[in-house]
Amino acid sequence: MTDQTPKKLFIKTYGCQMNVYDSQRMAEAMGAEGYVQTDRAEDADMVLLNTCHIREKAAEKLYSDLGRLRPLKGARPDLKIGVAGCVAQAEGEEIIRRAPLVDLVVGPQSYHNLPAMVRGEAPAVNTEFPPEDKFDHLPQRRATRRAPAAFLTVQEGCDKFCAFCVVPYTRGAEVSRPMARIMAEARDLVARGVREITLLGQNVNGWHGEGGEGFGALIRQLAGIEGLDRIRYTTSHPNDMGDDLIEAHRDIPQLMPYLHLPVQSGSDRILKAMNRKHTAEQYLRLIDRIRAARPDIMLTSDFIVGFPGESDQDHAATLRLVEQVGFGTAFSFKYSPRPGTPAFGREMVADEIADARLQELQALLDRQQKAAQESMVGRTLGVLFEKPGRMPGQMVGKSDYLHSVFVHAPEVAPGELLQVRIKASAPNSLEGELV
Ligand code: 5AD
Ligand code: SF4
Q1: Most CB contacts within 10 A, which of 9, 139, 181, 318?
Q2: Residue 350 binned pLDDT confidence (cut-offs 50, 70, 90)
Q3: Element spanning 9, H or E
Q4: What gap in Å lies between CA 359 and CA 124, rounded to an integer?
Q5: Going by C-beta distance under 8 Å and a sequence separation of 6 or more, which residues neighbour residue 77?
Q6: Please, are residues 118 and 45 in contact by the beta-carbon 8 Å criterion?
Q7: 165 Cα nearest atom in ligand 2
Q8: Last residue of a domain, which of 108, 134, 160?
Q9: What value does the mean pLDDT take over residues 352-365?
């Protein structure tokens, strides 16, 4: 099945961490076919673009990147070009019509078919939501020793139908993977050197077990795995922050004090128009309960400005909510109308107004981010070291709060989790010393 010289696979990943995970699994599936990964598209026998459809700009990037691949394909017609991910799911065959250099189109629920598609044993376009589970068909994750931090998808899809969002259409309905399968994958990762696992799902805290267990119960089980020192999860919906999960933040030291909890807007009117099914006040009360359980938790969020109908007062309410919570960092986006979503076609906020609001919100969030980072100076934090830094003898790792921390530590190896006293804060990182 495999040649003597391994074929080379180049993958470019756009968008969220779910795509990063899917890219790894696709690389593993193609690895079983004799492909090794390369980080140069020029050297590749196959180029795979794992795409994002969340905002218009993200989708347009695919077509400009495909344009850039045209000379490569012209020079080597046997180069295989595949498009995976959410644009593949949303646009299907249309991609090949618009960009005929594309050989394969595979959606996020059907990429276990990729090897057969490459061999020509399955149709070149596959965007099914197959009734069987792709995880049953993917090779086991046993390849080599791994980086100390890994992703693990536990839940996919979304039933929330926020009025702006394509995810329920591109990723489908909410599906939870069984607890036993997740535990097996986690144990396997830990056996290969992983010390930190980030559980992934579009609505990860909506995960539930086959026996009705909640997401907090899953985290408790995972915390029992010897050698798994850190657990994180992303992304969550406020309405799925159950008591069991909040209690897990109180009780489980391996669960990192960091929570990404998108709120999108601070205006009740806009939250309603977005179909978020909670008010600003309910979000604030939830934050109070989470902070009561874990006082040192750092909160992050997502915001959309310029949603149809957003007034100056609505925008002011968002700024107020940000002031009230105090975020460690946050993503903010200008609303991007997505065909097929309920908000598509609603009257848009003028572009200049949306731009000004985005700038104002980002300036506030930047100030909060800087303050949160500076508040780390003088504290002693766990740092999971990942790789050498820029300077000789320097190592870089991630703190409990996901800040990058640079430490002069020539004897330290990747995968070591050590206590570090934070000495200084740089624009995008911290500096510390081993204690
Ligand atoms: N326009 C702008 N931002 C969006 N997001 C999702 N859909 C859109 C859209 N149509 C943002 C939300 C979400 C994050 C992943 O992307 O803030 O939480
Ligand atoms: Fe999209 Fe809303 Fe589902 Fe998040 S909760 S994936 S924003 S529909």
Answers
A1: 318
A2: very high
A3: strand 7-13
A4: 43
A5: none
A6: no
A7: 1
A8: 134
A9: 98
Choose which residue among 155, 203, 236, 277 to substitute to test ligand 2 binding: the one with the highest number of ligand atoms within 8 A of its C-beta: 203
Residue 389 and residue 52: Cα distance in Å, rounded?
Answer: 30
Strand runs (DSSP E) across 184-257, as ranges? 196-200, 230-234
> Residue 395 forms beta bridges with which residues?
388, 407
Which residue range forms the structural domain that includes residue 384?
380-434
Q: Angle between the 312-325 and 280-293 helix axes, to the nearest 10 degrees?
A: 10
Please give the distance of CA 267 from its chain centroid, rounded to a whole number.
Answer: 26
Q: Are 205 and 176 in contact (CB under 8 A)?
A: no
**Cβ atoms within 10 A of the Cβ of 224, count?**
10
318 is an annotated ligand-binding site residue: no
The verdict on whether omega for the bond into residue 235 sits within 30 degrees of 0, i.e. cis, is: yes
CA of 203: how far to CAs of 107, 235, 265, in Å?
19, 6, 18
Coil vs helix vs strand at 272:
helix
Residue owning the nearest CA to atom 17 of ligand 1: 302
Query: Residue 429 belongs to what H/E stretch?
Result: strand 429-434
Paired residues of 300 in beta bridges: 260, 329
How much is the pLDDT for 145? 62
Which residue shows structure tokens 């994750």?
141
Residue 270: give its domain's CATH number. 3.30.750.200
Look at the chain and report how many structural domains it folds into. Answer: 4
268 and 326 together in one domain: yes
Q: How confident is the model at residue 2 (pLDDT cuts 50, 70, 90)?
A: very low
Indicate which atom in ligand 2 lies nearest the CA of residue 166.
1
Which atom number of ligand 2 is nearest to the Cα of residue 168? Answer: 8
Q: Using a 6 Å cutoff on CB, does residue 54 contact ligand 1?
A: yes
For ligand 1, say whether the CB of 236 is within 6 Å of any of its atoms.
no
Residue 272 among known ligand-binding residues = no
For 208-237, how does the pLDDT look when each residue is reduced to its tens digit (9 = 90+)? 999 999 999 999 999 999 999 999 999 999
Residue range 126-135, pLDDT digits in tens:
998 876 678 8
Do the annotations mark residue 26 as ligand-binding? no
H helices of 7-111, where? 17-31, 56-75, 85-91, 94-98
Measured from CB, residues less than 6 Å from any atom of ligand 2 are 158, 160-162, 165, 167-168, 202-203, 237
